[in-house]
Design brief:
Elements: H1 3-8, H2 13-25, H3 28-35, H4 39-53, E1 58-61, E2 64-67, H5 69-96, E3 100-107, H6 109-113, H7 115-126, E4 129-136, H8 139-147, E5 153-157, E6 167-175, E7 177-182, E8 203-205, H9 211-222, E9 230-233, H10 237-245, E10 250-254, E11 267-269, E12 279-286, H11 293-311
Helix pairs in contact: 2-3, 2-4, 2-5, 3-4, 7-11
């Protein structure tokens, strides 16, 4: 298939935009309404695409419209085109006005309420017109957010999924997990505590079947123990932190959660060695995708804020 004669002059971005709208709406009629154009225009655009490509891009029946394998392949590359154009517009806007712009960040809930919040707070002081879009998702959902280009980059722990060949990882610091208690809890006055002494305390922990819960499970098994008696199960960091602050509960948090966005005077780290290897935390980007100027500005501030943590071996 000759690009110049059969593709380059006959497939327009508008055609891809219409195809994407049909797939997202699962209906030509709904796509027409969404785009404020007529249904015959939609039908003709799809028909012209199929004629140029020589394959069907949509399967249509009374239940709606779904992309064929060919349509899905076209959209996969088409989304990249739209994303690069969006980033180009961002570059132009930033060049025209370096004080404004926006950035889309993906991170897990713990980093969202801690380290990422600290970076945003500092950056927004100097550039108050920058808009931050933070997608706080569980670790297993973050990769799809990035590969589908819903976010510009991730701030994430380096988990197994990050070995994906499409991704690049830049280390910011190595995270350690710690046992925490409220500042009023008598345990904070102890100089040394063994994990086994805490098995019957009131714990608020993530469920053992999620990523953070698995880390906790590993910590206790490293000491030859089972999961501790847990009063409250929650995968919401702010819920666990609020309960720890009452002084009645213990929990496990990344050490950085006690530092950012500011020190937590109501929560203290207990003197316990969990015997866990530190976990790398860093910036995850898609290979061959250029991050926009506001994103790069965020990364510069993230490196600066992470520097003291990186020194703590």
């Amino acid at each position: 298939m000759d690009w110049a004669d059969r593709i380059g002059r006959r497939i327009r971005l508008r055609d891809l935009h219409i195809l994407l709208a049909v797939v997202q709406c699962k209906s030509m009629a709904k796509a027409a309404e969404h785009l404020a154009i007529s249904k015959p225009v939609i039908s003709k655009t799809i028909a012209d695409l199929e004629q140029v490509l020589g394959v069907r891009v949509l399967e249509r029946d009374r239940h709606g419209a779904e992309p064929t394998v060919y349509g899905a392949a076209l959209l996969k590359r088409g989304l990249t085109v739209f994303d690069e154009l969006r980033e180009s517009v961002k570059d132009i806007e930033f060049l025209a006005d370096p004080t404004a712009g926006d950035v889309r960040i993906g991170c897990n809930p713990m980093l969202a309420t801690g380290f990422v919040t600290a970076v945003i707070e500092r950056l927004s002081r100097s550039w108050p017109r920058i808009v931050f879009h933070v997608a706080a998702r569980p670790g297993e959902m973050l990769i799809s957010e990035l590969t589908e280009r819903n976010v510009d980059f991730l701030v994430s722990r380096r988990l197994g999924a990050l070995s994906n060949e499409q991704l690049e990882f830049e280390l910011l610091f190595n995270e350690r997990d710690v046992v925490v208690a409220g500042s009023q809890n008598p345990l904070v006055r102890r100089r040394k505590i063994e994990v086994a002494e805490l098995m019957n305390e009131a714990w608020v922990l993530p469920p053992p079947d999620n990523i953070v819960g698995a880390v906790v499970m590993k910590a206790f098994r490293a000491h030859g123990l089972d999961y501790p008696r847990t009063t409250v199960f929650s995968d919401a960091p702010h819920v666990r932190m609020a309960l720890v602050e009452t002084g009645r509960f213990l929990s496990v948090f990344p050490a950085s959660a006690l530092k950012f966005p500011a020190d937590h005077p109501k929560v203290k780290e207990l003197p316990i060695d969990l015997r866990l290897a530190r976990v790398p935390v860093g910036i995850v980007t898609l290979k061959n995708r250029t991050v926009g100027p506001v994103g790069r500005l965020f990364m510069e501030h993230a490196r600066e804020i992470a520097r003291p943590l990186a020194k703590n071996k």
